[in-house]
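Deliverable D4.2, example record:
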Amino acid sequence: MLHFVVRRLVGYLAVVVIGTSAGYLLVATTLDPRAKYDAMQPRPSEATITTALSEVNMNPADPPLVRLGRWARGIVTHGDFGRTLDNRSINDETGRRMWVSARLVLIASVLGSLLGIMLGAYGATHQYRWSDHSIAFLSLVILSVPVFVLGVAVKQPVIGFNDAVGSTVLYLQGEYGAGNGGWGWSAVMDRLRHLVVPSFSLALGMLALFSRYQRATMIDVLGSDFLRTARAKGLRRRQVLVRHGLRIAVIPMVTLFSYHLAATFVGAIFTEKIFGWHGMGEFLIDSLNNNDINSVATVVFFSVVLVVLAGLVADVVHARLDPRVRSERSRR
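Output generated by the structure prediction step:
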């Protein structure tokens, strides 16, 4: 297993270098950081603009490859992702924002995927019954609704619930309330009340997606010979379905979960904007609007690393769940 992981890491390192470099060059040749200064009244002098852009390594007069080399050198030697267009530390921004996104996305992803797997497996074992048709219908409705519409739609019942109760039970804006930025008991409870609605909004999409995939994979497994053999040996139907059938049917979902989690980490843009969470998705949109090359390239780097880690985790978990994969790799 260790040899397998090392081989994968070497290949994934090349993916990170190529993906990040391509992303930086695309951003550096597309965004125009001078636009910020052109819009100022009065406009700074050309020398002032050039000096300011050179200080943050975004001077268009320097070739993109030269700027990429400086930026990559800072990452490799000091772990420094550079400065924003406003000359703020990108490390400080991402260090704060990535944990904000992680709390939101991880909880929503785990909750949505587990519920989706359960509903998908239930639908597969109750094919063409009213429950199966109901799950399919609701899943397709959720999948057909845009994320930003779904987020707004989830808000409305909560607003009505708070009005009916006469107090704010669940909050709809921000990660925490004023004065509750710490991690004491009252602060944690306040964070949870802010977390419920945006997490539920994100989890709905994953629940619908995973239920459709899990139903299809479970149906494929239900007709397998090894399940009939297990039943013939005297195992109860529930044992056969959960211990043998679901274990095999859930393997493709591991890969789907890993990559979907990586994409959602940065892709939860609308959810963060709607609910006022200052995470990586909001950082990406703000950086694009500001023509901030270094910040956008940093988000690209994080995205590539997350996808690579997702692939590695999916491969390792796949090997642990499927004995056929372990035996195949042991023969190599």
